[in-house]
Amino acid sequence: MAESRQPGSSPAPSTAPSTAERRELSRLATALTEYGVWTRIIDDGVPFLRVSNPESDYAIEDVSCERRSHDHAFLASFGVYLGSSDSIALTAKKVAWLVGATDR
Compositional bias (Low complexity) spans (predicted)? Predict the structure, then answer.
């Protein structure tokens, strides 16, 4: 299961076609499961991954995915490069740190 949801929430309808960017966001969501964060792919135009720390009302980050010449880049909502599709585990660790789910 690539997307995890808050308990009691219903799945979001997925009307957008599967894209390479969405597939990479799904891979990142899967990698984030070990950090105990909530993830959800939002398909509102260009897809992005909403990541939130269930222990905080404010620790929420939207991660976008951008195609590059040899891979895909993950970017924070404020434009900072978080990692590439070639380093999903490291990117997941950075995103988890960003929402306060890890101190390492």
Answer: 9-19
